[in-house]
TrEMBL record:
This is Ketoacyl-ACP synthase III. SUPFAM superfamilies: Thiolase-like. Residues 253-352 form the Beta-ketoacyl-[acyl-carrier-protein] synthase III C-terminal domain. InterPro entries: ACP_syn_III_C, ACP_syn_III_N, Thiolase-like. Coiled coil: none annotated. Residues 129-202 form the Beta-ketoacyl-[acyl-carrier-protein] synthase III N-terminal domain. It comes from Joostella atrarenae. Keywords: Acyltransferase, Transferase. Pfam families: ACP_syn_III, ACP_syn_III_C.
Amino acid sequence: MNIKITGTGSYIPSQVTANSSFSKHEFLNADGSPFKHANEVIIQKFKAITGIEQRRYVNDQYTTSDIAFFAAEKAIEDAKIDKETIDYIIVAHNFGDIKKGTIQSDMVPSIASRVKHSLKIKNPRCVGYDVLFGCPGWIEGVVQAHAFIKAGIAKRCLVIGAETLSRVVDDHDRDSMIYSDGAGATIIEATEEEGGIKSHLSATHAHDEAYYLFNGCSYNKDADQDTKYIKMYGRKIYEFAVTHVPKAMKECLDKSGYGIDDMKKVFIHQANEKMDEAILQRFYKLYDKTIPEGIMPMTIQELGNSSVATIPTLFDSVKKGMVKNQEVHKGDVVIFASVGAGMNINALVYKI
């Protein structure tokens, strides 16, 4: 028995927001003081570091559970399964449902329960729950689905990563330009087909690193200081990621029985183009190897950082030929890796 991804689906919001949309924002430092540079310079430097040229935001009427449902429908259709045969619905997110114009996060009922309701699944043995694991949440959901199936508790799981970060950003924080919205879904199930999940690794670094990403007040001191937004210590996250993620990827790959030359694609969380490139460089350096051309697909330039949704939407897009000069084939060995709030990291080696 092998445990494979048998269906994928994603929801990419239609609302495109280019970097130029931020030209009239009042960006401030953490202490509320204005930046010395003009917005055009801030935006230019931002693009040089992150690679982001535009991002996607959901339309006003949608929430995280809505777009999770949209992606789930596509994954179920792609897998050609009866939705009533799903044993678990695992939804990775970080902020729940936040309606446009509100400041509260709504997580009761769980996003997974809402998705099950929208899918109109009647089977009460289909269990839904949420995973809060930072940006690596979708991979962690896949790890849990793998464990359920391997233990005989389940045969088929729906794992979703969905987020609407546009609802939790501080317009006065230049880091707000990084974040975006999106949802990706996968069907994970036991199959006699060759391939599947070969190894995985997860870790939480919380002694000194727990609050590298956190909820904080607006940099505009005249704004309501009780309203919280997503905040981060970017330099610390960068240093953490390039130090720990390559080592985790190597440990996971070594455990799989495959070698670095077997890798056909590396799917890294689309957090920051320069950071992802540095992670890849250090990963290959651990094997004294040069990076093969085109091995790391990237969509952050057009889609931004949608947290838990970046890897499943990227994988779905590459699998379905929607990323230029990128494709995967049956039998290819790939690795997924992510880093995010917690600070959490994980990696997973998979044979298509």
